[in-house]
Amino acid sequence: MWSKTSYLIGCDNELAKLHTSHPEACDKVGGVIIMHIDDLRKFALLWLHKTEEVRADRAHYARNITGDIYESGWISEMYGYSFGAAELKLRHTTNREIMIYPGYVPEPGIKYRVFHYGLEFKVGNWSFDKADWREVDMVTRCWAKFPEPPDPSTLDHNDEENLQRDFLSIECVKTLNEALRLHHEKMNCHKDGSISELKEERVISRKLGNFSENFDSKENLKSRNYSEEIVSAKTDGTGIPSSFRVWVLFLCGFSVFGFLIIVFLVHSGHKRKGMKMKHHRTRRRNL
Predict the structure, then answer these.
(1) Which residues of 192-227 are buried (b: 16+ CB within 10 A; e: fewer)?
(2) Number of domains in the chain
(3) Does the residue 244 lie in any domain?
(4) Residue 229 has pLDDT above 70, yes or no
(5) Domain boundary among 93, 127, 144
(6) Which of 115, 55, 43 is closest to 79 using CA atoms?
């Protein structure tokens, strides 16, 4: 099951003819994927191959060919899927009730599960475009958030369709800001914008790309210290680990036991041999 994406105009033009042998089977789908995991395993490599193929085709990056407003291969993975599926002549069930773009007018009575905030959307004079925030640190900078959208009470309530559209747009950004707030609380951000010393060290480590390395070294040190504590706890006054002493005693006992068995078997063998000789002599005398 997929969401319909009408802007994949490459399914209807030369792009599809270049990248699939079955352009007539190209479906304009994407955004949300609902696929059985076994089917995905079989299809994944073809999807990747077609994505790389489309992304490398810079000669056809133009918006009038791809529908990509950035003209930079921005939606290559979507075409990669559609062209790969066309190669296998896969058909799709599309569902308009799963995903919506903020800025689109929602269908009445539908509770959308996914907001795909891919492009700029507006509410009055306010607007939001995630591309404008690529170089801004919203994660590790305490209390960073996106510009607040207008208050819903200030909207024009005379046009119901536009009102519902704007409600969804406002909900999208408010949800993002709430998620950032919760994240910064977990970072132990203070009201003045600073963070606790421990958290600050972790943030700096992430920025330097050494967080995992530092974490691993600390964990290894803890593990080594813990192992040393266990060993020292299991030693007696001689400095020899008790587990080692147990093994030595066990081996000694086993050796003694084995020696006794061998002596017993040898003695039993001699005894049986003597009895046979005695029996043989008795028979000869009787004869």
Answers:
(1) eeebeeebeebbeeeeeeeeeeeeeeeeeeeeeeee
(2) 3
(3) no
(4) no
(5) 93
(6) 55
In a domain, 275, yes or no: no
Q: Please provide the average confidence, as pLDDT, over all residues in the chain.
A: 81
Q: What angle do CA 258, 263, 268 make, to 5 degrees?
A: 125
**Does residue 201 sit in the same domain as residue 157?**
no
Question: Is 67:30 a contact under the CB 8 Å cutoff?
Answer: no
- What would the two tokens of residue 250 be? 């066990």
> Rounded distance, CA 85 to CA 33, Å?
13
Same domain as 136, residue 62: no
Q: What is the pLDDT of residues 177-197, one digit of tens each?
A: 999 999 999 999 998 877 765
**Domain of 38?**
2-93
Rounded CA separation 148/68 (Å): 28
Residue 141, number of CB atoms within 10 A of its CB: 16
In this structure, the answer to whether residues 107 and 182 fall within a common structural domain is yes
Tell me whether residue 155 is in a domain: yes
Q: 126: which DSSP letter?
A: E
Range in 14-18, 195-199, 200-204, 268-272 with the lowest mean pLDDT:
200-204
Residues 33 and 78 both lie in one domain? yes
Cα separations in angstroms, 183 against 84, 97, 186, 205, 231: 38, 30, 5, 18, 41
